[in-house]
């Protein structure tokens, strides 16, 4: 594959990084469009998205510094210039910080949380799909070894240096499995938004439930799960979070169902 998109002298531009940036821009655009359709203030949704993204990036760096404080004191510019966060716990902590910042912004601006979640859900789906394509091209989030004819082999040494991707052996293109699931979910969420007048929280609940189910099973084909096992290796961190997403998504649908039935009984 192609972990390095291009470079200027000694400045390397990783393919995965470029696709991640494209995924964030696409997600912002989709969320703004969904917000307009839902009658929300598009500029506030845009600002909320930027708040979440910047808070996540800054939060990851702060956690990275806290985890490697002695290294930071010795080589501060090298540490801050690390292109990839390899620790899942640091990455998860950064996401948690970004979500918290987004929630605080929404509360400060008086934005309806469930309507905002509905606008963000299809944006997250398309963003994940683009991000996973970039991961496939770069070698990040690689799959287990396979003998299937659609297996892929990475040969660029940068894939091993940056993402510890095994070289010269056929692996499950697990990133594309994930991308296909997210793309299908995105299409379904867009259809839900256009074909009927959904209640607040339904689209967000559908995304949480469907992506949780998909990610839980896709993770069985991941090969880079070392150090992320929970409960004695029974589940990975991603699978535990996927199960939580399924529960949250189901809860959003269950809590809306009585209102839906009540609305149908009104003459």
Structural classification: mainly alpha
Radius of gyration: 20 Å
- The portion of residues forming beta strands comes to under 5%
The number of helical runs is 10
Task: State the share of residues found in helices, binned by percent.
Answer: 55-70%
Largest sheet: 2 strands, antiparallel
For the largest sheet, list the strands in their spatial order.
Answer: 1-2
Which stretches of 5+ consecutive residues score pLDDT under 50? 258-267
What features would you describe in this structure?
This protein has 267 residues and is mainly alpha-helical. The protein has 10 helices and 4 strands, in the order ββαααααααααββα. The protein has helices at 15-37, 42-67, 69-74, 76-80, 88-109, 113-138, 157-163, 174-195, 202-218, 237-265; strands spanning 4-8, 11-14, 229-230, 235-236. Strands 1-2 form a two-stranded antiparallel ribbon. The chain has a two-stranded antiparallel ribbon with strand order 3-4. Strand 1 (4-8) and strand 2 (11-14) form a beta hairpin. Helix 6 (113-138) packs antiparallel against helix 8. The N and C termini lie far apart (60 Å).
């Amino acid at each position: 594959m192609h972990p390095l998109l291009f470079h200027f002298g000694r400045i390397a531009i990783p393919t995965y990084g470029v696709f991640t940036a494209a995924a964030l821009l696409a997600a912002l655009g989709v969320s703004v469009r969904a917000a307009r359709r839902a009658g929300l203030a598009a500029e506030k949704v845009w600002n909320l998205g930027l708040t979440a993204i910047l808070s996540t990036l800054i939060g990851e760096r702060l956690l990275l510094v806290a985890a490697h404080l002695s290294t930071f004191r010795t080589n501060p510019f090298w540490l801050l210039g690390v292109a990839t966060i390899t620790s899942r716990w640091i990455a998860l902590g950064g996401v948690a910080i970004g979500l918290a910042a987004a929630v605080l912004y929404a509360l400060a601006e008086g934005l309806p949380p469930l309507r905002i979640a509905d606008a963000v859900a299809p944006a997250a789906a398309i963003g994940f799909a683009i991000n996973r394509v970039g991961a496939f091209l770069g070698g990040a989030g690689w799959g287990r070894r396979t003998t299937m004819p659609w297996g892929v082999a990475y040969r660029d040494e940068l894939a091993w240096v940056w993402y510890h991707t095994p070289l010269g052996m056929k692996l499950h293109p697990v990133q594309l499995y994930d991308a296909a699931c997210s793309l299908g979910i995105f299409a379904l969420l867009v259809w839900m938004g256009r074909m009927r007048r959904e209640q607040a929280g339904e689209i967000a609940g559908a995304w949480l439930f469907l992506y949780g189910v998909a990610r839980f099973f896709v993770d069985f084909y991941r090969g880079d799960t070392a150090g992320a096992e929970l409960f004695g290796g029974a589940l990975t961190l991603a699978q535990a979070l996927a199960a939580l997403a399924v529960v949250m998504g189901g809860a959003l649908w269950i809590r809306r169902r009585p209102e839906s039935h009540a609305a149908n009984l009104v003459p």
